[in-house]
Each structure stands twice: as C-alpha cells, then as structure tokens.
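Project standup — Tuesday

K.O.: blocked on the structure for the chain from last sprint. Re-posting the sequence here as requested.
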Amino acid sequence: MGAFAVDRAKAYAVMFGGARPGRSARAGLWLTRPELPAVAAYRFGQWAERLRERRRMPGALCVLLHRVWNTWLMRIDHIDINHGARIGPGLLLVHGHGVIIGPVRIGANSVLHQNVTIGQRVARGDQGMPTIGDDVWIGPGATITGAITIGDRATISAGTVLSRDVPAGALVAGNPGRVVARDYDNGNMINFVVPADPPLTRAG
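H.V.: unblocked you, prediction finished:
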C-alpha cells in the first residue's frame, strides 16, 4: 500500500469515526476542505521527482504541475509542504490552514493541526532541519525549528515554540518548549495505527 493510500485511509478513519464514508462524504472532504488535497499534492510531488529520475521530460512536466498545484495551495489555504520534506505514511492535517513544512524529516502516522511551522531556526543562523519520529502529535500554532530531534510518540502542545530535542513519549509545552510530562500516552490523539500489511486498523 502506497503512502498516500495510508494517508487517505487515516483521514477517512479519523474524520468519519472509522466507518468508510460514502461518495458524497468523500466528495465533500475533497472539494470543501484543504487538508487531504494538500497531502495529495505533496505525495504527487514526491512521485514526480522519482519519475524525473527515470524519465526526464515526463517527470519534469509532472514536477512543474506539482509546483503550480503547490503554489495554488499556498495562496488559497496557506499550506506549503516543501518537496524536499521526507514524510512517512499516515500524514494527517487537521484544520490544515497555515501549515508550513520545510525540507524536514517526519516519521509515520503524524498529526499536524493548523498554523504549524516546521523548519529552520533562522534567527540563530541554524540551517539544520528538525527530525521528527513516528506517532507524533503537533498541536495548533506550534513552531518547531532547528536541527533538533523529536522522539517517537511525542506530543507537542498548542502554541509551543520548540528548538531543543524531545525524548520519545514526552509531552512538551510552553515558549520556550519544555518537557512537562514523560511517558505520555497520545494514542487517543493519534487515533490510528499504520500496520505493516492491510487492512488498516484504528487504535481503539
């Protein structure tokens, strides 16, 4: 199962309570909300880059199409997922307006809310990018910058400004962000499991 198939299955599972949505519900999700189209644009861009390595001209045309699509998303919904980002399957944007993701590394099964920024810490000349593990939940308005590492199953609270490493399973909050709890269970917030093989299942 491809990465976008997992992204889509997760969106359906979380947004529709685990039930497979009907055609009208799926159409509504695609046509009236920006989150899933933005993830689709990112995955298409990744596919286009791989195609360009094998077949230069068709790949270049697809890369150009992706750039146009991404520019449109930036102008309309202020969502920009850099084509250099490497993001595992199960990416979910929730209320996805204002999401900016630089050429970072994010693991599988991540959840990002609105107005999240992940990228360089320019103020200190830090050109490095964050590396984020699996099953990480990032709340509204969070800013994550610099060459830091965020461990698996970490939870970044709303409004956190983070520029330091976070251990696995930690709950982080504040400005500057600091660990406020360890061994924090974010399973109900992630609300999904990316299995090794289909069928996909929800955490319950």
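K.O.: great, moving the ticket to review. Residues 56-77 form the longest helix (22 residues). The chain has five helices and 15 strands.
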